[in-house]
Specification:
Elements lengths: L1 H7 L12 E2 L9 E3 L23 H4 L5 H8 L4 E3 L2 H7 L7 E3 L1 H7 L4 E6 L10 H13 L4 E6 L3 H12 L3 E7 H6 L1 H9 L3 E5 L5 H9 L7 H14 L3 E3 L6 H7 L1 H12 L6 E5 L4 H15 L6 E7 L4 H4 L1 E6 L8 E6 L21 H8 L4 E5 L1 H15 L5 H20 L4 E6 L7 H8 L10 H9 L7
Parallel strand pairs: 5-15, 6-7, 6-9, 7-8, 10-11, 10-15, 11-14
Antiparallel strand pairs: 1-4, 2-3, 4-5, 12-13
Helix pairs in contact: 1-5, 3-12, 4-6, 5-17, 6-7, 7-9, 10-11, 12-14, 13-14, 17-18
GO molecular function, one term: pyridoxal phosphate binding
Function: The beta subunit is responsible for the synthesis of L-tryptophan from indole and L-serine.
Cofactor: pyridoxal 5'-phosphate
Length: 469
């Protein structure tokens, strides 16, 4: 309360002549996505076929994805043109605003300048439509009328449901059971858009029934939900699978976040010394960080980049860099990534979008190359940061985004201790309007800091596939 009282006694006229919003015109929206692979000093390790352990061919991925997305998955071209129909939909909310957090700076008493890119202005309330729209578009162009997918907290499921409604595609979403129960209104939004939402593990798939037979009360995981969605997709040639994070083409689509932010930072006559993003599968982190990372790799000004993850699912800070499956049933190709093991089930903390056992291969590779740092925080300290942000900036962040808020606040307090006037940029990847039950639990003192099971983690890591690569 001391921090807030200090702010409340501040004359609000101090803020009248300081620009808060940095807005681009629709005509300034990027026309190309950016691909970090073009600028990496070392190429990404090969993706391996789960049966032969040989590098996958495009034809191996055709049961899951349309060829246009497969080509984006494997390309090393620096720029990929954004199709006009996708840009037309993007215009509903893009370009997204960049804000200067004047009031948060004042509350913290920091000399740092804090900026945040706000992706919660999309119809689904997060950054996820940035890839849901092109994925639905490319599938529609290929004649696909049915998509399956998984979702954790529900942002991705909501976004693909929205995209499916625009492109006349039926969508089935397997939502991790613990989040399905925690966030009923996310399910309602998916159904409003016309999608079917199923709690995972479910009775709809052979793998779901197997998991439930072993543990009827299983809370679910993204790995299990992926397995269920993939199982349905491969059974029907008219159905494809869509993934909301991790894959190269997803990270490619999200690069529009950082590309816009670069223009907006120039408008603010600033360049970030530090860039912060939360990490689960890696899509929103890559979206804000990769364009700046590529700028530095091409000889431009370098920013220190920080990935923030939950301490209950510490993929980057505790996981092993190794080949692993992206799903629990081992139906997906093997990719080299930071992983906790495909059999690992994270505790049921509220940042459902960060409860994934693996990290995007491209993010993992960048970490191995030393292009960014990673830290982890507990659930309650992230909610504390989110509440402080909301009281000063007015936006209630999603539990996932609270991790980035916490990371940015810690960087600002470091600047205060060191007397440095650094520029901090973070990605506020979504609002928390469907997560108020979590905030209610936090205010009631009922929100606990979940600890992962060390024995389960050790078992999951010991079960990593043996790969000769």
């Amino acid at each position: 309360m001391g921090i807030l009282n200090t702010y409340n006694n501040t004359n609000s006229r101090d803020f009248l002549f300081m620009q808060t919003k940095f807005l681009l015109e629709e005509s300034q929206m990027p026309k190309y996505w950016y691909n970090l692979q073009a600028d990496l000093p070392e190429p990404l390790p090969a993706v391996l076929h789960p049966g032969t352990q040989k590098p996958v061919e495009p034809s191996d991925l055709e049961p899951l994805f349309p060829m246009a997305l497969i080509e984006q998955e494997v390309t090393t071209e620096r720029e990929i043109e954004i199709p006009e129909p996708v840009r037309d939909v993007y215009n509903l909310w893009r370009p997204a605003p960049l804000y200067r957090a004047h009031r948060l700076e004042k509350a913290l008493g920091t000399p740092a300048k804090i900026f945040y890119k706000y992706e919660g202005v999309s119809p689904a309330g997060s950054h996820k439509p940035n890839t849901a729209i092109p994925q639905a578009f490319y599938n529609r162009e290929a004649g696909i009328r049915t998509l399956t997918t998984e979702t954790g907290a529900g942002q991705w499921g909501t976004s693909l449901s929205f995209a499916g409604s625009l492109f006349d595609i039926d969508v089935t979403v397997f939502q991790v059971r613990v989040s399905y129960n925690q966030k009923p209104y996310r399910r309602a939004v998916m159904e409003t858009y016309g999608a079917k939402c199923v709690a995972s593990p479910s009775e709809l798939t052979e793998f779901g029934r197997k998991v439930l037979a072993e543990n009827p009360d299983h809370t679910g995981s993204l790995g299990i939900a992926i397995s269920e969605a993939v199982e349905l997709a491969v059974q029907d040639p008219n159905t494809k699978y869509a993934l909301g994070s991790v894959l190269n083409h997803v990270l490619l689509h999200q690069s529009i976040i950082g590309l816009e932010a670069m223009q907006q930072m120039e408008m603010a006559d600033c360049w970030p010394d530090v860039i912060v993003g939360c990490t689960g599968g890696g899509s929103n982190f890559a979206g804000i960080a990769f364009p700046f990372m590529g700028h530095a790799l091409r000889g431009g000004e370098k920013s220190r980049i920080v990935a923030v993850e939950p301490s209950a699912c510490p993929t980057l800070t505790r996981g092993k860099y190794a080949y692993d499956y992206g799903d629990t049933a081992h139906m997906t190709p093997l990719t080299k990534m930071h992983t906790l093991g495909s059999g690992f089930t994270p505790p049921g903390f509220h940042a459902g979008g960060l409860r994934y056992h693996g990290m995007a291969p491209l993010v993992s590779h960048a970490k191995e190359l030393g292009l960014f740092d990673a830290v982890s925080y507990t659930q309650r300290e992230c909610f504390e940061a989110g509440v402080l942000f909301a009281k000063n900036e007015g936006i209630v962040p999603a539990p996932e985004a609270n991790h980035a808020v916490k990371g940015a606040i810690d960087e600002a307090l470091r600047c205060k201790r060191e007397g440095k006037e650094e520029v901090i940029l973070f990605n506020l990847c979504g609002h928390g309007h469907f997560d108020m039950a979590a905030y209610t639990s936090y205010f009631a003192g009922e929100l606990s800091d979940h600890e992962y099971d060390e024995q389960e983690l050790a078992m999951a890591l010991s079960g990593l596939p043996s790969v000769n690569a």
